[in-house]
Structure formats: C-alpha cells, structure tokens
Amino acid sequence: MTSRNIIEFLRTVGAQADLLEYLKVRSKDEVIATATALGYPFTEPEWNSLIWDLEVYLTEKRGEKFDTRFFSTMWGKYYLEFLVGDLMPSFTAEDFDAVTAGGM
After folding, report:
1. How many CB atoms lie within 10 A of CB 97?
2. CA angle (22 as vertex; 67, 40 as ends), nearest 5
3. pTM for this predicted structure
4. Taking CA 15 as the corner, what is the angle to CA 54 and CA 90, rounded to the nearest 5 degrees?
5. What does the alpha-carbon distance between residue 29 and residue 21 come to, in Å, rounded to a whole number?
6. Pick from 38, 81, 84, 101: CA 20 to 30 A from residue 14's CA?
7. How confident is the model at residue 29 (pLDDT cuts 50, 70, 90)?
8. CA torsion angle for 77, 23, 61, 76 (degrees, to 10)?
9. Can you spell out the DSSP letters for 18-83?
10. What is each CA distance from 89 to 4, 5, 7, 27, 38, in whole angstroms?
C-alpha cells in the first residue's frame, strides 16, 4: 500500500505542473507532508527505500551501472523533476510490480 501511495503521488505531481513547480524546491519533509495531505501517506524511510529500489531497477533495466553517470540524467533539474519526468515514465506497471513485490 505504501509503495502504491508513493507511486500515485509521483504520478499526481507529474500530471500537475503547478504542484511540481511548488514542490520541487521544498524539503523532503514538506513533500511528504503534501503527499499525506493529498491522501498518499508514507514515511521518509518508505520513500527512501522505494526510490532507491526504483533507481537501481531502472539502471539494471537499461543495462547501466548505478553510479554517478546515472545521476547525470538529472543535470540541470531538481530531484523531484527527475523523478516525475524521467524515472516514472521509464516504468511499466509490470516494472512497478517487480520492484514493489518485496512486500512494501
């Protein structure tokens, strides 16, 4: 459930340019508080764990290493912009299921 909340929250942010514009410069605590207010509650450790797993999965899917080169795709972007604009669209529903199958 928590993983789904994070994924749905990122989709919501990605679909609302004004919300992304507002949140991209906010702290992680503020982003998580906004997610909760929107009905997508999760904790910082749950966020950190899933985002890390998604990033690792994506590099493996692309046949890349999870190293500093991977993060060059973020150049000139805020991290939240990278997540909703690059990371999220790279996943299919099956990819999300594979990552979240660990029982989050």
Report:
1. 11
2. 75
3. 0.80
4. 30
5. 16
6. 101
7. very high
8. 0
9. HHHHHHTTS-HHHHHHHHHHTT----HHHHHHHHHHHHHHHHHHTT--SSTTGGGGGTTS-HHHHI
10. 15, 17, 11, 23, 21
* One-letter identity of residue 96: F
Contact 50, 3 (CB under 8 A): yes
Plot region of 63 (φ>0 → left; ψ -120 to 50 → alpha; else → beta)? left
Q: What is the DSSP letter of 101?
A: T
